[in-house]
Amino acid sequence: MLKSLKWEENQVLSVKVGDNLFTLAQMRINYLMEFFDVFRSNENWGEVDLNKEKIIFCIFVSTKNLKGIFSGQMSSDVVVNSRPIRRRMLSPVFGASGNNGANLIDLADGYTNIGAETVQSSLTIDKDLQLIYDYESCGMAGSPERVLNRLKVYYETGVNWDETKVFLFSDIKPPQPSR
């Protein structure tokens, strides 16, 4: 576990998902972090090229809260991802009486939801389920348990599921496995 962690764009970190289970994450712009489908039983990354690896999800993170899930810095051991950062995300909408939902947005310059362009408003499970599955919420992830659980579930089942989407769409169910 890292004792301290300073945000450094393109820094690659080893994530300790569980006993003898690790994956990689990369810091991008404005506290966006990508988590990759490169699970290993040890931290021998042997020239992994993150440009060729599947991004499981890319979310805004609180490094202060999540620093305990990272076991080491790996930037010198791997080729960092230089693909464009995903700009499209779900912007939560909290309504009266639990009438919540989300809009689909493109992040503004600086990779922020402030001033973001709305691509599609008022997404619904009936009409927009695949969009809801495909895009991440632009809210800040600060729970290490949630991030680790999501990675474990993906590793064990192939289901990439952000359980917080239930707060926005109360009747939504997890998607089918993606691998």
List strands and helices in order, with pairings.
Blueprint: E1 12-18, E2 21-27, E3 32-36, E4 55-61, H1 63-66, E5 70-73, E6 88-93, E7 101-108, E8 112-120, H2 125-134, E9 140-141, H3 144-157, H4 165-168
Parallel strand pairs: 4-9
Antiparallel strand pairs: 1-2, 1-5, 2-3, 3-4, 6-7, 7-8
Brief overview:
The protein contains four helices and nine strands. It is α+β, with helices and mostly antiparallel strands and 179 residues long. It starts with 11 loop residues before the first strand and ends in an 11-residue tail after the last helix.
Q: How would you describe the overall organization of this protein?
A:
The chain is α+β, with helices and mostly antiparallel strands and about 180 residues long. The protein has a domain at about 10-75 and about 140-160. About 20% of the residues lie in helices and about 30% in strands. The chain has helices at about 65, 125-135, 145-155, 165-170; strands at about 10-20, 20-25, 30-35, 55-60, 70-75, 90-95, 100-110, 110-120, 140. The strands form two sheets. The chain has a six-stranded mixed beta sheet. It has a three-stranded antiparallel beta sheet with strand order 6-7-8, with no helix packed on it. The chain starts with 11 loop residues before the first strand and ends in an 11-residue tail after the last helix. The model has no long low-confidence stretch (mean pLDDT about 95).
